[in-house]
Hints:
Two copies of one chain form a homodimer. Chain A is of the alpha+beta class and about 1000 residues long. Chain A has 33 helices and 27 strands.
Amino acid sequence: MLTMQDALITLTRYWTGHGCMIVQPMNTEVGAGTLNPATALRVLGPEPWRVAYAEPSVRPDDSRYGDNPNRLQTHTQFQVILKPEPGDPQELYLGSLSALGIDVCAHDVRFVEDNWASPALGAWGLGWEVWLDGLEITQFTYFQQSGGMTLDPVSVEITYGMERIIMALQGVSHFEDIAYAPGISYGEAFGQAEYEMSRYYLDEADIAANRALFDTYAAEAGRLIDARLPVPAHACVLKCSQAFNVLDARGAISTTERAQAFTRMRNLAHGVAELWAQRRAELGYPLGTATASPSAPEEVTAPMPSLDAPADLAFEIGVEELPPAEVTRAAEAIRASLVERLAATRLRHGDITVLSAPRRIAAIVAGVQPCEDDEEQAIRGPRLSAAYDADGNPTNAALGFARGQGIDVTGLRPLTFNGGTYTGFIKHVPGRPAAQVLAAVLPAVVADLRAERNMRWNAPGLSYSRPIRWVLALLGPHPVPFTIAGIASGRLTWVHRTAPEPAITVTDAAGYLPALRAHKIEPDASVRRSRILTEAAELALTAGGQIDPESEHAVIDEVTNLVEDPVAILGSFDTSYLDLPADILTTVMKKHQRYLPLRAASGELLPHFITIANGECDHDLVRAGNEAVLRARYEDAAFFWRAELARPLDEMKSRLAQLTFETQLGSVADRASRIAALAAALADRVGLPDDERAVLRPAAELAKFDLGSAMVTELPSLAGVMAREYARHAGQPAAVAEALFEAELPRHARDTLPRSRPGAILALADRLDLLTGLFAIGAEPTGSSDPFGLRRAALGLLAILRTHPGLSQLAITEGLAIAAALQPVPAGGQLPEDVLDFVGRRFDQLMLDQGHPAASIRAVRPLVDTPARAEQTLQQLAGLLRTPEGQELAAAIQRVRRILPAVTSLSFDPTLFDSPAEHALQAALDKISEATGPDTDLRHFAAAASALTGPINDFFDQVLVMADDPAVKANRLGLLASVYHLAERYLDWGQLP
Amino acid sequence: MLTMQDALITLTRYWTGHGCMIVQPMNTEVGAGTLNPATALRVLGPEPWRVAYAEPSVRPDDSRYGDNPNRLQTHTQFQVILKPEPGDPQELYLGSLSALGIDVCAHDVRFVEDNWASPALGAWGLGWEVWLDGLEITQFTYFQQSGGMTLDPVSVEITYGMERIIMALQGVSHFEDIAYAPGISYGEAFGQAEYEMSRYYLDEADIAANRALFDTYAAEAGRLIDARLPVPAHACVLKCSQAFNVLDARGAISTTERAQAFTRMRNLAHGVAELWAQRRAELGYPLGTATASPSAPEEVTAPMPSLDAPADLAFEIGVEELPPAEVTRAAEAIRASLVERLAATRLRHGDITVLSAPRRIAAIVAGVQPCEDDEEQAIRGPRLSAAYDADGNPTNAALGFARGQGIDVTGLRPLTFNGGTYTGFIKHVPGRPAAQVLAAVLPAVVADLRAERNMRWNAPGLSYSRPIRWVLALLGPHPVPFTIAGIASGRLTWVHRTAPEPAITVTDAAGYLPALRAHKIEPDASVRRSRILTEAAELALTAGGQIDPESEHAVIDEVTNLVEDPVAILGSFDTSYLDLPADILTTVMKKHQRYLPLRAASGELLPHFITIANGECDHDLVRAGNEAVLRARYEDAAFFWRAELARPLDEMKSRLAQLTFETQLGSVADRASRIAALAAALADRVGLPDDERAVLRPAAELAKFDLGSAMVTELPSLAGVMAREYARHAGQPAAVAEALFEAELPRHARDTLPRSRPGAILALADRLDLLTGLFAIGAEPTGSSDPFGLRRAALGLLAILRTHPGLSQLAITEGLAIAAALQPVPAGGQLPEDVLDFVGRRFDQLMLDQGHPAASIRAVRPLVDTPARAEQTLQQLAGLLRTPEGQELAAAIQRVRRILPAVTSLSFDPTLFDSPAEHALQAALDKISEATGPDTDLRHFAAAASALTGPINDFFDQVLVMADDPAVKANRLGLLASVYHLAERYLDWGQLP
């Protein structure tokens, strides 16, 4: 059996064999191997660096007295830094797994998107967690920034979680049972320390002492930065951080303190990083500077192929595993880029098919013409006046121009450019061969790729979600030769990393797809998805269950883009876990593990799951691995569940005071109080009856309490679900428990909505507070960044107000005004309108998605403060515009609208009327005024107002509105304004086409 | 080339192959691998434990900005703990050197006594530093106590100094040049950290902050001990210790603080250790308990051999390398033990020859008789009166006794015991065979072995300087079978560890010595010594030099007992080092390296040295290694020398305030002030003329200043020497410089003495202060422990007072009284007499060594307060007792002495005389009284007093002293008392034989 110590030695040897030097762990407590100066400082600056080391990583917060089978206050990381990233770090990494004796062909090894960021340290990177049969065993990151400094070159950071790997390899279910070394278990070696250090961190550490340590070390760090000594300064920052972590584990950090401490540590970390970089520069980079692209191939000198007939283009960009969302985006992005860039040439082509998978983005362009079309170009020479002398002989200017263009001077003739007359000539530009065109277009398409979040790697000039590693470009049977950022195009593509020949040669464009499929790569996401559905359904049947493609669509979409060759495997778990709330079980399955849950026909959860492996593997092995992971997670959840059922709700609620919501907006407890107050005000506003108030009041008091539970800390998507469960078990009335659950609804676009009014009011209060608070501190979303989920909040607000009959009269701005008054920061002025506009834009999008014309949506926009009314109006408007009467009415009202100046008095004097049309219009107006009121909707108004169409049209036919007599003119406008005033209550008619 | 990282991996693999588990370094700064809990805590208690790990060891005091080629603030230890010690740890260790690629046969690997103690941690152990060609590469310790607790079982601790080993193996002379890993040097990897951490420790660390850290961590540690959490408590003690070390390196620790800090840390360390041991017991010793002797052989069942004729006994106790001093002691100890224990048997034998070498203590007992002599024993039965009834028939008591003794009742006869009459019989006890006797005697001799400092190892019941590993016992050709502490005697002996067959079989006792010598082991120290002298002299000649056996006797004696097979190798050093003071060069050679210096006939030092290797080796390799070591040491010394020549003397002197002399007695600066004051008082006392005072005063002001120099810190035996050098170079008058040197004289028994009076006065003041102070705090030497060298101080005091003409009148008690008044602690009462008695005993020993009869020495003992007078008197007494007159005078005075009661009045009344003899005696007395005075010495007194001999003898012949008349009797005793009173000024005549 491979002991943990063997594994550490094996990794040490493996990585020294790949040029890493070995250093010792940091001799002060660190939370992760990243903080060791061998990473934190050495990734800065241009010097190359390869290092590997074990690092006992101390997380006081993870202290569990050694009781939790998977969680330790000190776990062992094995850390590798490759700087610059070597071009094949994933292959190197897989080699290390093989060195550990892991058969990577038999197991399901996957690279699952996981990005890393430590705002406290100004550090982030993009990468993956590596899964071994569903178990996260390694964090793999392209390190982009550290200490607030952009890293150049980029380092690869590989962090193995040793205890997890070994538990999996040894098949043990508690860390204490790990065979650490021959004859001694992990528990025997470290169990007592685990227990005692947990005691220290959770119960015994003196708070005043650790506060003093924090201050002392922070001050030392600051002094040492001033003294230009980054190494000891860094050590002090680490000690400072450890003191903070201890205080945090002791629950001694208030919101204010946390914010201050983070600011202080971040500033120090930045100071250290900058100073280190300066010092290394001053020392002249003793380790040299990394060359940008160590293995940049020669510039391509291959001859451009030429074709006689149209041919297909196969174009594939090979990448390291993209995040699932990017797989989808990438296909559309490559299509858009290709279309646009080809359109800028004169190369004609047929349909473009795009395909994408985790490791490739491909396009098949059908029927590419052999050449671009030819073109006639007018070439401008000197001004005509300067081209010939008085004798009509060409001047030196003309002669020179002709010589430069390679034509005889006699070929010049007068041409007009921009109104001036010049000499010049018409040049026949023949179309370039297709390959030549493509050799310019395709690298630009590669360079165009951009993702939601982009990274750099060792390819100067490129920036994308993950590194681009190869480009295949075949025009018929010919490669299209080009080079981009050191990557030469060619006819190679890469299939499964575990294949006997991971790189294969494609003979021609038509053979591209067959070749991939022959090697078990499916680049078409829709094919992958349907295969998953088919295989999963078949497997589910064998277990007497079924998959619900609708409710599992999100995880199915995700899994579709996590694999290139989906292979469904059925696994099971112990039925005893079915005692846990089903939401917990499915959340763990889907969010953590990307498994599909199985249900009986009755809807009941079955003790099975389906995992989708990437390519063929040893099913029994992979099943067993995934089952063990799920078991550990369920064990963890069951542990929390049992423990927290016994905890009073108040106690969980009291923890909220220690959770920061946002620096300026206070703790989660502060936010929960605001939600409760806001909910009470909204209840007054809608005149909530006493029986519903009896539900709302206790629910509001408990608002968000489950965020103080360990279960929700672990599984944040269970917020609300756990509130309901815990409240129910604590003896709260069912309606209160339900309201607590509903307060979190809707959690995503397809989620259900609160059904009870108390629940809906809480949900509204939540979202109103969120929007108001974050707009108040200037944190409204920009671009694609929406960390607090304000767009989702706005959509939730709309969904509730649109659909909840008892709340439809509630105006958003009313709610925002109450919320604003409760914020700890100024939230008045323009703010409610800004928020309403933000919400309104979500409304517009929703309505567009429902197929309403943009003009109609714009027309109802003034009503969005009460979205239900706006939507109702929009629907009625659609109906109205479907009838000739309606269209005529609208046209008539628009006619009125158009003639009215921006400011018009509503008053008119019938005694000044001088035509029957005026009187008729007034009469119609009076009649409709009587027939409508504040509660009249568009449909009723239109029914009544159809009587206006005739009088309006008559009015315009017979009356000159813009009369010479100003008084008459004003009087006529006053009449029209009154007509419009009556109509504009329902619509902004001016927006209609 | 073996890189440092290769070496660490190699050691890791080697020791895991020998059952060690690997742990990570401690994640807080430690001064040594010993402090890692994997050592500090795990060596406690009965649980077995084998561990190995690298440990970056932080010594703020060793910070040198990376400038010093051999000294780093952080160096890398590789630490191994074997618990219980496995019986062959040295062999295991040598195996690890081979694994590193070190050819242990070609190199000179030696185990040189080096014991380890950390009073601050209540920890100590005995062992060696391991030398590779003169370079200390490893500390090897049998760990005896930790945290104040005795360790059972004993652990072996092996600590490799990685940087040193690698520098030697790679042949580089600066740590920065070490090839740490392929393509990266140690300097490149760690140079900046070395510089910056040095800056922190020496210049930048905030003193107040580190004081606060010390207090905070100490308090946390105390609280955690109370909370019964030894693991976090230990971590806090380590952090506390680091804070202390930082403060110390910053020069911020005053004497008082140091003492308090040590006490505090020691108490905490003890608390942690006890708590850990308790906790492990409470946990039921999860790792089990180590068996006392894992490989205890079966009890010996070999048949006892029997002999027909006398045979020789060869008896050898095999040990691990003894300290040189113990090699000598052991030979005498085994002789004494054998003689005594054999004398307690009836086994006759011939001469006993004892031999000793580092790894063996041997005795050859010639002509051991085949059997003990027979014996007749009287065996006592019941009282005669109870043995027979009235009829003379034996009683049951008699019958039972006879039956019990296995004789017929008729064999009983009356016997007298202690005056009573009993029945009994004479039993003939035949002598036991020699082997049987020896099988009982020899293990007792083994068990008798005791050294100055003893240790335990995995042999219950034994305690000795170093582990005993085998016993050879051959009586003629037969083994004498016995077992002691798991070791079975036999015919095996071990020769060089690097021999092809390290264990050889000896066929018979006579073959023992030839067998050893055939395998190049010389067990006879005198043979080894003369071989060293011969070889060294021959080699010296080849370099044009010579060795002075007299002045190098100490190092020659030491080296004789550091090897079993001396091989002299000549080495050289660069002549440029000859610019350094010769004392520095020879001190380094002798004290540090045990080399013999070579001098030209003129006495000038030559750039050569001779090292004595243990057994054959590759001379060129060993020479080169030793030369490199010496070069590094000289480079170090030269560095200090050049640096300190530039430092003002005052500055060095000011450092003394930071050096603790003794907790209660203050700093070295305090002591230096006392010495200065005392010297001034002594100068007054002897009436020192002004010119000499002009020397004394500045010298006294500078007293001990060189203890503040780095050179003396490194080479303490250069105290005084460096004072003279630095003072001379700083422009002090030659006489002052010389006095500073002389103040330290004599440094050992054969050293020279101060020649100038200022120097002698300073030297006296030094020793008077030392004796007074340490007696005052109850630190007088006990047994063999004399850590402050008080015996040497007393001898120095005597030597100066005996030999310095200008100081001979100075009484020790006068000096002590002045010294007492200067102490910071009470030093009055009985103290001066106690010190004088202590000094007197040294005087006695000296005089005995000079051949004076013990009785004479006792006779002059009352004069020891002025030792010169005492010695002079002793010499005169010897002369006196050589003459018949002298003997008669002495006899006469003793006759007077004997008759005098303890208390006698000196008064007499001549009118009460009634015989001429009384008058004659009085007349003689009066005459001598006139002829002698306070300054009369014994010789002159005797010359005068010879006139007394006749009158005294006549008096006793003619006068009855003890007359019946009390008045007459008292009068006669008064006369005699007056006579004796006159004589006792010179001697305690009663002590003469």
